Amino acid sequence: MTRAQAFSWFARAVFALSFFVPLHEAVQAKETFRLSLPVDCKLGQDCFVQNYVDLDPEPGVLDAACGAAAYDGHKGTDFRVLNTKATANVLAAAAGIVRGVRNDMADRLVQTEKDRADIVGRECGNGVVLVHEDGWETQYCHLQKGSVAVQPGDKVARGQKLGRIGYSGLAAFAHVHLSVRKDGAVFDPFLGRSPSAEFQDACAAAGPVQETSLWQAEAGDLLKDAAGSLIELGFASGPVSTGELERGTVSQPSASADALVFFARAINLRKGDRLVLKVEGPDGEFAASSGKPMEKTKAQWVAFSGRKLREKRWQAGTYQGEAVLVRNGKAASRETARFVLD
Ligand SMILES: [Zn+2]
Fold it and tell me: What's the mean pLDDT when you consider all of the chain?
């Protein structure tokens, strides 16, 4: 059957159907609402899910995997890039019509109460709201100033570029926040449901609950980051702060740096998790640390291991660091990084 034939068959079928069944039943015969990735980047490599929807309707935090990779009252999913020097295109997660845009707010990481106060009522920053069929709505927040590429009333296709990842509005790191709403209510795209006490009870009773994801098949492993991920490894001339990492201002050590440190950065850690580091230098074993267990859930953690300079300069050659995220005594993930000193 050609496409035209298929279409005319489909049109006839819908037409015939509409004679016999009420309209809302005919509508149900349409394809289910599905979301594709809202970002054009490689998940697990260039971008990561930092926060999920908080499914606990009361104070407290609960993500779709019955963990705590969210914060209280979080109404969407945060797709982050490593730092403010990185970005990626933000894409329409489904075909729809643009209901509203904002494009003129500065990209500025929120750190103080004053920063927060300055953006009250504009927490989304630069953003786009799309309306879809059947009461579905998606919203994309914290886009780069001036990057919004659509206008209210525009019809957009699935995967069409809406703008670029930035850090405008209430953003403590560079990311796009995707909100999904059904008839105005917060909706979790992983579970296909709104926050509820029932889900909380189900988690308490039996652990993770399988529900109907709104993601298209290829986006199904999006929930992986909820279980903790090593997102960045590197070498520096001393301990680095998360602030420096969020800004991408960490530089590699010189041959005469006061210290030579390997660092590993992880997100969505659970109580009891450890980051174990091992560093090999040109002469073999250089540094190691077994890491202390997290006392509670951590959205982000940076671990270090290194040495202070005691000679004139660091030995030239290759330095290799390995980081292992240890959970319940087992390696949950393992990554390595290399650095060559001339
Ligand atoms: Zn968010």
Answer: 90
Q: Which helix (H) or strand (E) element contains residue 212?
A: none
Q: Which residues pair with 96 in a beta bridge?
A: 156
| Ligand 1 mean position, distance from CA 179 (Å) | 8
SS in 3 state form for 158-190?
CCCEEEEEECECCCCCCEEEEEEEECCEECECC
Determine what percent of the chain is predicted with pLDDT higher than 90. 78
117-132 b/e with 16+ CB inside 10 Å = b? eebeeebbbbbbbbeb
pLDDT tens-digit profile of 170-185? 999 999 999 999 999 9
- What whole-number distance in Å separates Cα of residue 49 and Cα of residue 167? 15
Can you tell me the distance from the alpha carbon of 341 to that of 237, in angstroms, rounded to the nearest whole number?
12
Other Cβ atoms closer than 10 A to 162: 25
* DSSP element (H, E) containing 324: strand 317-327
pLDDT at 165 over 60: yes
The full set of domain ranges for the chain reads: 30-225, 229-341
Other Cβ atoms less than 10 A from the Cβ of 61: the count is 18
Residue 16 φ then ψ, to 5°: -60, -45
What length does the chain have?
A: 342
The architecture (CATH level 2) of 229-341 comes to Sandwich (2.60)
Residue type at position 299:
A
Going from the Cα of 72 to the center of ligand 1, the distance in angstroms, rounded, reads: 11
Q: Taking ligand 1, which is a single-atom ion, which protein residues have CB atoms under 5 Å away?
A: 76, 78, 177
Homologous superfamily (CATH) of 30-225 is: Glucose Permease (Domain IIA) (2.70.70.10)
- Considering only CA atoms, which of 132, 30, 43 is closest in space to residue 82? 43
Distance 177 CA to ligand 1 centre (A): 4
For residue 63, the CA-to-ligand 1 centroid distance in Å is: 13
Ligand 1 centre to CA of 76 (Å) is: 5
CA of 74 to the centre of ligand 1 (A): 6
Q: Kindly report the pTM of this predicted structure.
A: 0.88
